[in-house]
Automatic annotation (TrEMBL):
Species: Candidatus Pantoea soli
Gene3D superfamilies assigned: Periplasmic binding protein-like II, Winged helix-like DNA-binding domain superfamily/Winged helix DNA-binding domain
Entry GO MF terms: DNA-binding transcription factor activity; transcription cis-regulatory region binding
Name of the protein described by the UniProt record: LysR family transcriptional regulator
CDD domains, per the entry: PBP2_LTTR_substrate
Record PANTHER family: HTH-TYPE TRANSCRIPTIONAL ACTIVATOR BAUR, HTH-TYPE TRANSCRIPTIONAL REGULATOR
UniProtKB keywords: DNA-binding, Plasmid, Transcription, Transcription regulation
High-level lineage: Bacteria, Pseudomonadati, Pseudomonadota, Gammaproteobacteria, Enterobacterales
Domain HTH lysR-type, chain residue ranges per copy: 12-69
Family under the similarity heading: Belongs to the LysR transcriptional regulatory family.
Highest taxon, organism lineage: Bacteria
Transmembrane annotation, as ranges: none
Amino acid sequence: MKAKSLGQITDFDLRLLRMFKTVVECGSFTAAESVLGITRSAISLHMSDLEKRLGMRLCQRGRAGFALTDEGREILRHSESMMAAVENFRQQVNQMHKHLRGEFNIGIINNLVTQPRMQITDALDALRDDGSEIHINISMLTAAEIERGLMDGRLHAGALPLTAPVSGLVYTPLYEEISQLYCSREHALFGTAATAKAEALSHYDAVAPAFRTPAEAMQLQQSLTCTATASDREGIAFLILTGRFIGFLPDHYAAQWVEKKLMRAIAPEQLRYSSTIALVRRQGQRHNAILERFMQALTLPSTSLTG
């Protein structure tokens, strides 16, 4: 058979080589019929196609029986190596899906860990289930810092209150957070907190948040006499616990002091507001398998808001 150079290996070539390997393992075209599910004449035609494609005789067939040529033994050896490499490649790709590698950087507003619906905690746990080669970096930041980190690529995801969406970011609601007005046990309102009148609260010092809040919260805050500010919710808690100030806190965060009777909600039926905590990521960012796995582990609604 005239020698020829082999061009690009095609899927059809791979099928022919697998068929060739099966014929060799069976020992004849006849024995290979039931294994391959095709007739002996079809096998013979396919073998001829392979030999023409390779430009060499691979086996002797006829009355003397089936036997590999020297070239056929070499082709069998090389094809087995190639098929093993293809299978190894397949397994490695599948392994990558199962065991992700790399860093995951997430920014979270403080005091979110006491939220009873632990979606973020559970999703981070799911990342660890996928393998120990994911390095998780959590930064406790303000909402503005999280949004900046997402825009400049330092963060892959963030969790913050949905108040004023920033262009270029995608906000997906995680859960609703209820905040109420609180005082501490040392405060003059503690004994009558449940029945206190909202219009009488202007006589007491209040702490104002120095961070973005929903419009409803801002409206409630304006009715108070704010003589102090705090950069985060922990700062508000510190000032409330002095006994000198009243201030708004998420109910899940204040619960630890309420249970110990160190805090009490003031006029809880009137002085409360709801805010949406959202999972935020950058719009159009390149594919990130770790972020995708994190998102899959969250119980998210089908709708998102783009800034």
